[in-house]
Amino acid sequence: MATGRTHRPATRSRGIPEATVARLPLYLRALTALSERSVPTVSSEELAAAAGVNSAKLRKDFSYLGSYGTRGVGYDVEYLVYQISRELGLTQDWPVVIVGIGNLGAALANYGGFASRGFRVAALIDADPGMAGKPVAGIPVQHTDELEKIIQDDGVSIGVIATPAGAAQQVCDRLVAAGVTSILNFAPTVLSVPDGVDVRKVDLSIELQILAFHEQRKAGEEAAADAVPHVAARKQPSTDQGPDGDVPAVMPA
Amino acid sequence: MATGRTHRPATRSRGIPEATVARLPLYLRALTALSERSVPTVSSEELAAAAGVNSAKLRKDFSYLGSYGTRGVGYDVEYLVYQISRELGLTQDWPVVIVGIGNLGAALANYGGFASRGFRVAALIDADPGMAGKPVAGIPVQHTDELEKIIQDDGVSIGVIATPAGAAQQVCDRLVAAGVTSILNFAPTVLSVPDGVDVRKVDLSIELQILAFHEQRKAGEEAAADAVPHVAARKQPSTDQGPDGDVPAVMPA
DNA sequence: AAATGTGAACTTTTTCACAGCA
DNA sequence: TGCTGTGAAAAAGTTCACATTT
Q1: Which residues does chain B have within 8 Å of residue A7's beta carbon, measured at their own beta carbons?
Q2: Most CB contacts within 10 A, which of A246, B99, B140, B176?
Q3: How confident is the model at residue A229 (pLDDT cuts 50, 70, 90)?
């Protein structure tokens, strides 16, 4: 690395669409399950079903990574697991700090899928001095004062914020100042960060509100449906996750 | 579909884009904060900044709801709060059950923003008989056997699954059979549900993997940047959340 | 025969830029 | 004058359908 080269690494044209990146972990999970069952190969159709997406989308997604399948056969499970892991950066180990060891922080610390896939909890940090030293998920909680030291010593670049909303921005600023460049925010606040820092948020109440919106609409539809001869059959098992789910679009006049 | 009607209802063309729906809770939160500070009106620019989106997008989003602003002035905070709440279905009260009262379930039960905005925890349910009766967040945990009864008695239509992955599909099936039509899934599994049921998922490990992807790319870029005279200034405070975060596209020529 | 990989069509979402109103 | 509301353009994402390869 670090040469005077002006071109993108001879690899394949970078620029995997963000939507594709967001689905790679889904594929990886499905593939890992297959791998554990020692399934050697899988078709786009099968894998797509397991991941809950459609097969054309899956093939298109994989096409951004390269040609890892075999026509007439499908994909080699182990090989794909490796390729996707590599693409996601999971072949290296990412130390992560969790700040705010309340109920949620403890839940996160205990979350198994964490350690399993490339991530390692480097430290648990809480502002409450009473918590200091107390082990959570086998890791002793450290006081906020130690934050900068921990991040620098362990080379932490990913931080998880599970504090109350009021403390989140301040914690975020400290994390960023200490060198963290990716933040997963569970606090219900918009964080502002310098350029070059990634923030993703997970927000229970937003998810519930989106569900309520669709739920309300369903209720309206039912009322409308009552006025109509026969409600169309609802019950085809469909696999569908993510942002929408249905969005039918009927509506009373 | 069902009737012979071919035209859209006379109402304002329903069909708020899904992307817009997903942002409404964000606007609502920002507006609620303003309302608490007794701010009477707000411009699209200000509100957009508070919500972490750009103002054109916000205006476009609001335009799907109707014309609730005043040109030259901005939006009336209270009025908008009401309109968005109504649109999201938050003017009614949604009873919610949480299934799986481990660390995460407890965290969710204790989550304040829950009760505050239209949602009410109708019951906490766990498969462990030892948990039964134990109060969490002031609510006694009930055994899974009671699930169907609770859902029917309380008219619950939204369920939260916080069980281990292995139990999730089974719990989901029972919820759906009992009448739940919206599910928020915290278990790391793809749930399959009948048509007409909405599922949204929240998945810590997926979020971390997406961060790792970008983090890895940053590392690569840095190395590339070392070969270039001077790294462009990174540090303009930017507000940016959601799916991407940055995706800088530095790309040496 | 089976299943990938991908141009091309289509849909959704974002951004632009400005007319129109208070 | 200031700021909304929105057509129109651009970008991103999804789906189709089929030539290509094993």
Answers
A1: 252
A2: B99
A3: very low
